[in-house]
Write a structure and sequence with these properties.
Family: Belongs to the class-II aminoacyl-tRNA synthetase family.
Radius of gyration: 26 Å
Largest sheet: 8 strands, mixed
Order of helices and strands: EEEHEEHHHEEEEHEEHHEHHEEEHHEH
Main location: cytoplasm
EC number: 6.1.1.22
CATH topology of the largest domain: BirA Bifunctional Protein, domain 2
Subunit structure: Homodimer.
Structural class: alpha+beta
Bound molecules: 4-amino-1,4-dioxobutan-2-aminium adenosine-5'-monophosphate, magnesium ion
Keywords: Aminoacyl-tRNA synthetase, ATP-binding, Cytoplasm, Ligase, Nucleotide-binding, Protein biosynthesis
Distance between the termini: 27 Å
Helix content: 25-40%
């Protein structure tokens, strides 16, 4: 960056001084010989005040030519003014147009349809609301690393091109030279398990891919997942960790991103519930509860989004639904010794009808049992040789989970649809921009 440029966020340190700001025009207004421009530079907004009598003719001429989204260099004196957007004003002395922006800039101050906004995502991202969501996303990503670093977890990166499949959801595949099909990773978990046997406690944080033909407000085809895997943790330890983790993430955003939450008009009192212990509800009881509220779910089904909403509504705080039926869940989950029809797993359901934000489980550590599950699921056993060997050479109790970043952002920010929670969403029917 040009060293002489002052960021709008830093104007508070320069009140009374003359500085240079480089920024884009968001709003323009003028009254005769007095002009106002609200400027945005990515760190904040400020109001630039241009008085015809106080600037050169060329500068006034440039001001009158400004349009929304033009980029400009401004030199002027910084004034604190509580009434100005952003709290600071610049009394402009010099104004130089850097990049003009024609009047047909696609996004105008009026209602646009969602498809139009998504087609113009590159510009939509310049809005205050989208900026606020991206900042919360950034805060959460940093919080994830801080949380695990402080607990001595090792971050490990796992492959995106894979031969083995982790989840049941749809697969994106491509031909991999002479090796046959390669799949885009649906999860880093299987590799995470191998790494846990090496390093003890690890986590992965990367993009994952699901060719799911679901057009819902909670599905992306490319999303980011945080997947910790812990040696010697059973499922209870696993849930304790998830609870600490989710509480930490929410508290961190509340502590550091109040301004963004205000822009998003988030009712933050709805997040206070994370300070209570999370509810832990057996799957069978969850089914009965949903049935009592009118759902036609029966024992054995995975919970649908409407069931999840009914269940969480009862408790008004995050709910772990524990020990699902084996058939509803992935092959790697550990059979529940207390009821072998079920597995030692939990989905964490977020409040306000958000549904599942975490899926996790203790892993099957018995070689024969996991081999039987793989075969039963019709998965190609040959591709899982290395994974099965983790049960052959020093098998170990271990557990882990996956938290979906975008669903977590949507819940914390109170965003209806997950498509706003990632810079460039990949959805069924959309791969551009
Ligand atoms: O429940 P899932 O499928 O679990 C796994 O992938 C495990 N391998 C995790 C583990 O134990 N290591 O996905 C985990 C989370 C979900 O709870 C959800 O938050 C998110 O990933 N997720 C999606 N987010 C957006 N779009 C999709 N299509 C998603 N599918 C799952
Ligand atoms: Mg799941």
């Amino acid at each position: 960056m040009n060293k002489s440029t002052t960021r709008i966020a830093d104007l508070k340190h320069h009140v009374g001084a003359t500085v240079t700001v480089r920024a884009w025009v968001t709003h323009l207004r003028s009254k005769g010989k007095l002009g106002f421009a609200v400027m945005r530079d990515g760190t904040g907004i400020m109001q630039a005040v241009v008085v015809k009598a106080e600037v050169s003719e060329a500068a006034w001429e440039s001001f009158t030519q400004l349009t929304q989204e033009a980029s400009v260099a401004l030199v002027g004196e910084v004034r604190a003014d509580a009434r100005a957007p952003g709290g600071f004003e610049m009394g402009v002395k010099e104004l130089t147009l850097i990049g003009a922006s024609p009047l047909d800039y696609p996004i105008q101050p009026k209602e646009h349809g969602i498809d139009f906004l998504l087609d113009n995502r590159t510009f939509w991202l310049r809005s205050q609301r989208q900026g606020a969501i991206m900042r919360v996303r950034h805060e959460l990503e940093q919080a994830v690393h801080d949380f695990f670093y402080s607990r001595d977890f090792i971050r490990c990166d796992t492959p995106i091109l894979t031969a083995a499949i982790g989840e049941r959801a749809g697969l994106f595949s491509t031909e991999y030279f002479e090796e046959g099909p390669a799949y885009l990773a649906q999860t880093g978990q299987l590799y995470g398990e191998a790494l846990a046997a090496s390093l003890g406690r690890i986590y992965t944080f990367g993009p994952t891919f699901r060719a799911e033909k679901s057009k819902t407000r909670r599905h992306l085809t490319e999303f980011w997942m945080i997947e910790p895997e812990m040696a010697w943790y059973d499922q209870d330890d696993n849930m304790d960790l998830q609870e600490d983790f989710v509480r930490y993430l929410v508290e961190r955003v509340l502590e550091r991103r109040q301004e963004e939450l205000k822009v998003l008009e988030r009712d933050t009192s709805k997040l206070d519930c994370v300070s209570q212990p999370f509810m832990r509800l057996d799957y069978g009881d969850a089914v009965k509860l949903a049935q009592s509220k009118g759902s036609d779910i029966t024992w054995g089904d995975d919970l649908g989004a409407p069931d999840e909403a009914l269940i969480v509504d009862e408790y008004q705080r995050p709910v772990f639904v524990v020990n699902y039926p084996k058939e509803a869940k992935a092959f790697y989950m550990k059979e529940n010794p207390a009821d072998p029809r079920t597995v030692r797993c939990a989905d964490l359901l977020a409040p306000e009808g958000r549904g599942e934000i975490i899926g996790g489980s203790q892993r099957e550590d018995d070689y024969d049992k996991i081999l039987a599950r793989l075969t039963h699921e019709g998965l190609p056993v040959e591709a899982y040789g290395w994974y099965l060997d983790l049960r052959k050479y020093g098998t170990f109790t271990h557990s882990g989970f996956g938290l979906g970043l975008e669903r977590t952002i949507a819940w914390i920010c109170g965003i209806e649809h997950i498509r706003e929670c990632i810079p460039f969403p990949r959805l069924m029917g959309r791969i551009a921009p």
